[in-house]
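Hey team,

Filing this mostly as a record. A colleague (T.K.) asked me to run one chain through the structure pipeline before their review meeting, and I want the input and output archived in the tracker in case anyone asks later how it was produced. No errors, nothing strange. Just documentation.

Input sequence:
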Amino acid sequence: MNQPLDYIPYPTAPYHSRRQPVYAANGMVATSQPLAAQAGLAVLQRGGNAVDAAIATAVTLIVVEPASCGIGGDAFALVWDGARLHGLNGSGRAPGILTAETVMQQGHDEVPGQGWLPVTVPGAPAAWRDLHQRFGRLPFADLFAPAIAYAERGYPISPISQYDWQWAWIKLRRELTADEFERWMTVFAPNGRSPQVGEIWHSPEMARSLRLIAESDAEAFYRGDLAEKIVDFAVQTGGFLRAEDFEQHSSAWVQPISTNYRGYDVWEIPPNGQGLAALIALNILEGFDLPDIPRESVESYHLQLEAMKLAFADARRYIADPEQAEVPTEALLSKAYAAERRALIAKQASLPEPGEPQQSGTAYLCVTDSDGMMVSLIESTFNSFGSGIVVPGTGIALQNRGKGFSLAVGHRNRLAGGKRPFHTIIPGFLTRNGRPIGPFGVMGGHMQPQGHIQMMVNTIDYGLNPQASLDATRWYWHEGREIKLEPAIAPDIAAGLQARGHKVEVDSDVGVFGKGQIIWRLESGSYVAGSEGRTDGCAIGY
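Output structure:
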């Protein structure tokens, strides 16, 4: 079979090898890149807590996985402080002068993925600072040292990171032709191409930006040199960000939302994130006896897919910035509403429609420490390298989160200045009877809530350990009746789903199916972790 010109074989990943989980008594870090995991572990070993280690890991990830996350992105976190769960929404808002009408006047019927139109204020630097100010133990600047060293002196590119980077380069070199995109090639394709596996890449500009953020508690990013550089470049090249957008930015401490699934409480960040979709789907699934249905069966796959489709239909209608639109979260999570939605599931695949409830590019990491503090953190620039805009002199790639807005008149999530968009990145957490079990997450756009429910079903219904849960085969719902299955799923299951009306595609690109991490706390007080085999994942502890 002839492959297209830009075909890249996906690196071989032993994700069906049933690797064993990792056990450790004192602390654990699990994320998608070993250098970042080691940065977090080193912080734990020198007396930092889980929040310190999570920040060090997150900041290192923006250097060693720049296609996935960056200084110019957003971040969300769930923190178990030893007694209760806290939520941090670190997403940025649309520029104050940007409107839906502006986008449409430029000839678009939806917010595009590249350029200035989808750029929102980056929230990650403020999120790191706010987490540290509330929970951190070591000096904030110390947590940046590994990332600054890698950015300054360089590091060898790992296989899956290189794969994502190369695909982004293939796409962006064709599409980024305007003046505002010139710097992307200079920073991220310095030899006229994306870096190769094992090749050393570094960015002195990124190192300088990180040092400024570290030394100023992120003030340089929102009110100092970096903010000025970003705003000046926006003004010069037709962007919409202004100084007041940065000065007015703030993270939000939020009350996490949850649902009880067969005796376990599954926690998510509330809207504007899409974690609500995972909880709606679990509520629907709770009414089926999944533990009595084999995991590898047409029935199990069908029920999970149909529940997820119904949940997404509601998420896309109702999720928006709760500061600017009413989101009926409580009504959507009611067990009575779940029963109504569950009744819509039949033997055949459906075309999902939203219900009417009664009113009343991403990187994920998780960290635990010896005192019982646990962190679930996720950060992203959305598509690989975000908007494609890199601000000269900073090494900062700006996110394209505004692509999550709707332009439809009357929609809760319609683009407006100062508004936060529908957000895909969602950290997860699991408790039982008020006691923590641990953090989990699966990155990958709209795969994230789908990955969350598959991890919960694998864990709670089928009793899989963290590594087995992550290794297990996955499905992905695209739209309508279109679904994707991994090649390792038995042909008879694919055929059975096809017979039920699903439009099945077997997809060998494991990047479609998400990349996750899990850490659970054992009765002994020790931890057990799993790390994704579909990426350069690493779970380590001591």
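Quick notes for T.K.: The chain has two domains: 22-252+363-404, 257-361+443-534. The radius of gyration is 22 Å.
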